[in-house]
Amino acid sequence: MAPQILSAQSIERRRKSLGMSRAALALRSGVSLPTVNRMLGDDIGRATFSNVSAVADALGMTVDIVPTCSDLELQEQEARAKAKKIVKLVQGTSALETQAVDELAAQEMTQRTVHELMSGSKQRLWST
């Protein structure tokens, strides 16, 4: 069987193909019927991991946790977000001193900051 992304639709398809009622699924999984109904009504994004896992297990499904991007891509995303915050602080401070930084200079500062964050400690990258 080819792997599929776990979604409310895939859980509902599996439940129906097994001929299992939502009430039976709730009982089998230990998840309340209102919660099962919310999960299968496309509100799975608000469900807890333990509830999704219990429902999947009750249906003979797995919840696989797989990366959506490479380590480097995620680190770069974090570095860029952090760099933008830092540059905004600098822009705000500079504007107060009537020395505002123009857009091109801000972009260059952001890029330099991303480079510095990426070349430094990875633990520091994730600190707040």
Q: Write the H/E string, N to C.
A: HHHHHHH
DSSP helical segment count: 7
Q: What is the overall silhouette?
A: elongated
| Secondary structure category | mainly alpha
Count of individual beta strands: 0
Round the mean pLDDT to the nearest integer and report it.
86
Main sheet: strands, sense, barrel: none
N-to-C terminal Cα separation, in Å?
43 Å
Q: How many discrete structural domains? A: 2
Rg from alpha-carbon coordinates: 23 Å
In short:
With 128 residues, this protein is mostly helical.
Commentary on this structure:
The chain has 128 residues and is an all-alpha fold. It folds into two domains: 8-58, 434 Repressor (Amino-terminal Domain) (Orthogonal Bundle); 71-126, no CATH class. 69% of the residues lie in helices and 0% in strands. It has seven helices and no strands. Helix 1 packs across helix 3 and helix 5 (71-96) crosses helix 6 (103-119). The protein is elongated and about 65 Å long. The two termini are 43 Å apart. The model has no long low-confidence stretch (mean pLDDT 86).
Q: What are the key terms here?
A:
mainly alpha, 69% helix, single chain, 2 domains, 7 helices, 128 residues, 434 Repressor (Amino-terminal Domain)
